Amino acid sequence: MTDRLGAVLAGAVPRVCPAAVALIAVDGSVAAAAATGELVRYADAEGTLVAERPPAGRDSIFDLASISKLFTTAVLLSLAEEGAIGLDEPVAAWIPGHDPRVTPRRLLTHTAGLPPTRRIDLELPGADASERMEAMLRTPIAHPVGGPYLYSDVGLVIAGRVAELAGGAPLDALVRARVTDVLGLPDTGYRPTAPSRAAPLAQVAASARVAATEWKPERTGPGCVRGEVHDETAYALGGVAGHAGLFATAGDLLAFGEALRLGGGGVLRSGSVAEMLRDQGAEGAAFRHGLGVRIGDPAIVGPLTGAFGHSGFTGTSLVVDPARGLTVVLLTNAVHPVRGRDGIRELRHAVAGEALRLRELQPLT
Question: For labelling alongside 349, which of 81, 98, 230, 324 has CA 20 to 30 A away?
Fold first, then answer.
């Protein structure tokens, strides 16, 4: 273990984010771990400090934001392995009336021509989650189908719904059955503070470990958002969506990344992982794009060129470098109490840089 990673996080907290947890695995073993800051620091957008500020720890739970897309991708690929979907079949097979040019592959590579986002909560303020989902599924094509690359949360919402229709279960149940239960990830799931008849005491305990995010006075309850998804569209869809909504600990996310690094970990076959990590030829991005994953994304990989992964708007990132045997997790709540902080890119690069340093200290196995 090394205290250098702790120093990296300490240099960013609370300036960049109120809380941060990072894990670095080298050849599957945790080589560095650090946690610092406070899970809840602010009471409002003005930065008023709360009286009780619980410390972050390795078991803290963070809103993963768009890293959720990787779990949606894993579910879709597992369904493709079973023949329940075809990656190049029109999604109209599951969503009648949808543009026949749109396929799961195009949704996962952000080349379906769909707009980046849609504030369905503002468009349909009085509707319920199911009505809003139906409206999302009818989002018209606004850009060329097939490329160039245009990042689209709408596309991954539709991908999540396709998974539900093909898999015959809600998305949260599919993620649980096909990913988190398989890997043994007890702290990964949607709506971590939602009432649970099965394990009410566990739910209460988990609530105390969740990091707060943004001040959103339009939602019910005082203070900053905590324990419910930060993303407005996912929240409007009931907290479970293909593009956002998952919460996890750093340890759980590391295990997921390791499963991908090692070829599937029981979640996917090695051939499916290879296809996931293959450059799909999406033009116009600042990185190569696989299925759901970014390859060599300069915003998150730092010196780990060639690594794959994804970032989350809340200040999270997962970076996996199979060539170097590295998996790097950074969880923060950089949107607490407001979005727009500077420095998260630099923090991600610094953590990746520490991972490279640790790799260079150990011979490749």
Answer: 230
